[in-house]
Amino acid sequence: MHFEHENQTSVQAVTRIAIIEPHPLAAEGLRHILIGESDFDVVGVGENCKNAMELVERERPDILLMNLRLPDGDSLEAVKAIHERWPETHVVMRTDSRNFSYLPAVIEVGSVGLITIDRTSDEIVNAMRSAARGELLVRRHELGELVERLQRNSKTSDQLLSTRELEVLKCLAQAKPTNQIAEDLFLSVHTVRNHIRNILFKFGAHSKMEAIALALQSGVLDVGDICCEDSSEDSEREMAS
Question: Distance between CA 180 and CA 170 in Å, rounded?
C-alpha cells in the first residue's frame, strides 16, 4: 500500500505524519481525516512493521500513527527499534481494545500513547496535535490506571534527583520545550540540557518520555504533574469560553 507525498503550500508549521494500518479502508479513512487539516502532511502509508521501519527511515515523520496489531511481527518491538534509532519521531498507537493492561509496555518502548479506533475525526486530529507537542497521549482516567500498574512493580532508585533536576523533570512532563524550560527556570539552555542528561542517566532512560514513565513508576511524579490529552482539551475549552 502506498500513497504519494501530500504537498503543502501553507507557510505555517506542518506536522509530518506517517500511517501504518493493515486495513486498507481504515488507512484511507485516517489519511482522509489528516490531509483535511492544513497543518498536517501525510508523508506515507504502510501496512506492517517492515513498512514502518522503511517509512520512518526514509521520511523521518514527526508522528508515526501505527496499529498495535500488525501482520508481520511484534509492533511493540518495532516501536522500540524506531524509538532507539529515530527518537524525534513520536509514535502513536491505535488499538481496537479498551483493555489498557498493556499500556505500560506501550509507554516503556517509547510510544507517546494509545488511541482507540472509535475516536471521532476531531479527537484524532486533537490527538495528533497533542502528540506533536510531545504530550503523553493518555486520557486522565487512563493515566491513573497507568500509574497504578507501574507503581505495583516500582523499584526505588538509589539515586535521587536534585531539586533543580526535579523542576526540570516536571517541566518535561508538561511537554515544555528546552527553550521554554530555560526561560521559566531562569537557566541557560546549556544548563537545562545538562540537567536533562543527568535525569536520563539517573533513571537509566533513553528518552525524555521513558524518563517520565519511570518517574511515574517510582512515584517521583504523580498524575497531576503530567500534561496529557485531557489537559490540552480542557485548556482549549477554557480559552474558547
Answer: 13
C-alpha–C-alpha distance, residues 112 and 137, integer Å? 6
For residues 67-96, one letter each, b for 16 or more C-beta atoms within 10 angstroms of the residue's C-beta and e for the rest, the string is: bbebeeeebbebbbbbbeebeebbbbbbbe
CA–CA gap between residue 229 and residue 126 (Å, rounded): 8
User: Does residue 111 contact residue 64 with C-beta atoms inside 8 Å?
Assistant: no
In one letter, which amino acid is 39? D
What is the pairing mode between strands 15-20 and 40-46?
Answer: parallel
Q: Which three cell numbers stand for residue 46?
A: 504502510
Dist CA 85 CA 53 (whole Å): 10
pLDDT at position 182, please?
A: 93
Q: Which of 105-109, 172-176, 225-229 has the highest mean pLDDT?
A: 172-176
Contact 196, 205 (CB under 8 A): no
Mean pLDDT of the chain: 82
Distance CA 127, CA 124 (A): 5
Which domains, and CATH codes, for the chain?
A: 15-132 (3.40.50.2300), 157-240 (1.10.10.10)
d(CA 196, CA 181): 11
pLDDT, tens digit, 9 for 90 and up, residues 12-51 = 689 999 999 999 999 999 999 999 999 999 999 999 999 9
